[in-house]
Write a structure and sequence with these properties.
Layout: H1 2-9, E1 16-22, E2 25-30, E3 33-40, H2 44-59, E4 78-80, E5 83-89, E6 93-95, H3 101-117, H4 136-155, H5 162-184, H6 187-200, E7 203-204, E8 213-216, E9 221-223, E10 230-231, H7 235-248, H8 253-264, H9 271-282, H10 285-296, H11 303-314, H12 317-329
Protein name: Spore coat protein I
GO cellular component, one term: endospore-forming forespore
InterPro entries: CotS-like, Kinase-like_dom_sf
Length: about 325
Amino acid sequence: MKQVGNELFNQYDISIKKFQYSRSNYYLDTKQGQLLLRKTLIPKEQIVFEHEVTQQLLDKGFNEINKIYLNKKQLPYGTYLDKCFVLQSYDKITEIDFANREELKASMQVLARFHKAACHIESKVRDIENIGSKNIYEYFQKRMLDAKRMKKKISGFSQKTKFEIMFLESYRDYEELQYSALDLVNTEIANQLITKAKVNKTIMHNDFTYHAVGRLEDNTYKIMNLDNCTYNIQLLDLSNVLTKIMQKNNWDIGLLDELINSYACINTLEEDEVRALKAMLIFPEKYSNICFKYATSKHRNNYSMFEHKWENMLVYKDEQLTAAKELIKHL
């Protein structure tokens, strides 16, 4: 690893005092401070885009992210045997706990500040007009058709698996959630979200979960990286992470309200955005993904996988239904 490291180090204009290697990453003690040279599997164009976004965020004063350093060739990555490495600033951090209320609220505030800063971002390698932004109304409709196809497919079997029996016993509750979500939005709202993203050139993190943000030793927070960032509707970040948090916290509507407020007090949500957010939270994503995978599979296999996912989902079903009613009530 020392020989590999030296080849990589020589590509950068840095003075290294010592380094430590762990899990394909090099932790460097340099005259420029603590740095991390990490292996990444993302394409070179995405690394360039990530650097463009990161640098513009830093220039705007958003410092809750690591700086990416250019090599001697002015590229944001080093290479060794066709493998790419990114050199960035490094801080010792602790991953947030999805069960810790204060850490969750802090992470929502970091996301809000990131979204507020990540607007009007320019790029030489990406054209926002060529990015396929998610139309949530059309997405809901497609996933509902998947569920109907699955029901029709299962109903025709004379002998049904345990998973298929469980599906027929409880699909109506999830179907009701799908219809409730669809009732909150329409084509106009979905298109407005896409237009706003394109006009404002907004960046979404695209992978904002517990491992995406960490707590520093001084109890401030920082986003780890933007490896998957892209031009898109930022509201998708918020709905995705809130859904994951709710699944870990039994759809605690009080916690959900606190987290949305923590975000909105920094990055205000417009009325249509609130409706869209509530629709995305109500829409049963896990259920819809199971239906999609089952409906598109050619063979009746992976019974245990489907069964396990379904049982995990049923654990918080009643709380999820209650939360949906509360979200609709307080529109």
